[in-house]
Amino acid sequence: MPLVEPGLNIQKKSTLAKSLSAQNDLHVLIDDCIAKNRLAQKKLYDKYAPFAFGIIKRYEYNEQSAQEIMNDAFYKVFTKLDQYSFAGSFEGWIRRIIVNSVTDHLRKYIKDTQVHKVEAEPMHAFTESESMGMMSYKELLAVVHTLPETQRAVFNLFVFESLSHKEIGACLNMNENNSKWHLNDARRRLKEKLEKFLK
Questions:
Q1: pLDDT at 23
Q2: Which domains can be identified in the chain, with CATH numbers?
Q3: What tens digit of pLDDT does each residue of 132-147 get?
Q4: In this structure, which of 15, 46, 117, 179 has its CB flanked by the most CB atoms within 10 Å?
Q5: Distance of CA 29 to CAs 52, 57, 127, 132, 185, Å?
């Protein structure tokens, strides 16, 4: 019978204990927030605000607008906390609320009634660009921010949130084909900008 390293079991138990402790702490924090404990609400906000703002800034570079979306998103988080079932990741649950808040904001400004003709373009046109590996996240974000608002929104929803064109169309009140066109156009523009970055 093979011998089991004693340290391995201790390490596994320690990891499990930490995980259970973190889950229990989160449970207590959420319960306190539901009970409208201000300190608990501030603790939860401070913990998840950087994560939330990072997502929002991919879509909205205007600081004031980004802050408005942030406030709206956390208002929804705090008013819907009793709906969180602890079945999945809390971060994932918050992320959905943030993305919904972003798309609510974008719908007010994106008007895309024109039907665009979709031309076939390789799916890897942007994601396999050599220059991506040479850029910092901040530099890449700056390039994405140069896209027109609709292309930027579609690109982010498709690439970072893994939404289908049907889902993007529903989020932004646009035709599914228009979503495909905007993604292709975003990729084309990004490819051109990244090629300039390499020179």
A1: 75
A2: 6-109 (1.10.1740.10), 130-198 (1.10.10.10)
A3: 555 677 777 888 889 9
A4: 179
A5: 18, 27, 39, 39, 44
